[in-house]
Amino acid sequence: MSAPPRPVEGFLAGPHLATFTTARPDGSSHVVPVRFTWDGTSGLARILTRAMNLNL
Hints:
By secondary structure, this protein is mainly β. The chain is 14% helix and 41% strand.
């Protein structure tokens, strides 16, 4: 996997919120706000959420 361009890497390293969306059995969306950390060395994004949102 190639590294993202430098401006993208800089953006990913900052504190941002994202949304994690999955489809429920009835087809509707389940959207949860999450934070994430980016490990550019391994190309891994770790999703962080609160305990009340652990049904991801």
